[in-house]
Amino acid sequence: MGRLRVFGVGVASLSVAALSAACMSGGEADEKAAAARAKARNMAAAASEKKTETEVAAKAKANELGQIPVIMYHRIIKNPPPGDDRTPEQFRAELERLAKEDYVPITAAEYVTGKIGIPAGKHPVVLTFDDSSPSQLTLDGMGNPKPDTAVGILMDVAKKHPGFRPVATFYVIRDLFGMAKPEEQTQVLEWLKDHGFDIGNHTRDHLNLLGKPEKEVEEQIGAGQKLVTSLIKFSPVTLALPYGNQPHDKKWAMKGSGAGASYDFRGVFLAGYTPAPSPYTKDFDPVGIPRIRSKEKVGDCVKFCSTAWLDWLNANATDRFTSDGNASTVAFPKFKAPFVAAPYATRALPY
Fold it and tell me: Nearest to residue 219, comparing CAs of 182, 175, 256?
């Protein structure tokens, strides 16, 4: 009897073990099958999403490898002398044109970092202002921009054209919008930051960096960086070279330290003469980004200033940056694929 009991227990134990193993194998198989089904569903959903994105891009005729106008402004004043200044009426007319031709302003920081999130079918434009003039921004006693300043006009045009973002980049020097007191300087810089505007470095003294030694170049740029960071919690990520002149070694303008401050920019802007390449292309050179002077077709501006280039981009729409409306993709016609920069290859959406 004792042997039979032992034998019986052994058989029972083996039967339970076998049953457990079978159950475990079945459970694992079910889990693997469920995982496979989930993977298949995810792949199907991803394929469907990509198909939809491609259709949207094709419908918008998206070309996010196209050129972008980066327009350079200085003072906005009545009766400007010959040069780069514009009247309030001229500035307003150019903004109205940009809005009607489906341009949407983005900042220089957004441009150089590739964060271009605008609606499908729209075109980015970068509005830049050099030298921090009071005509660009002066606040009244209630902290509102005066109507005839550049910011006042830009905000007014934006109200009339929904979707036309009132943003721009201001390249400041030590004459901070004509403000002498640090408290006033802080006020105006904080106002810009709080309202979505971008602040860039233009060196402290607007010194021509051409032919200057490395130490002097870094001192001027470092001092320009400190000018901003000592007043507000913001560090410029782009530099506009005074007079558009690069130092002996272009890299000195991109990264360095001086005047107790360091800088490591994502982009350095020149002063002319062509639209800028898309940041998603191999043509994008962060050390020397071209800008366009704001001017009608007179003199050398018959071909090389804003009116002429906007006419050209309008006539050559396939060369202009057109958004697909999705900031996470880089959409373009398939044959342009060789021009995609390596960092953006995983975001490519050819159609």
Answer: 256
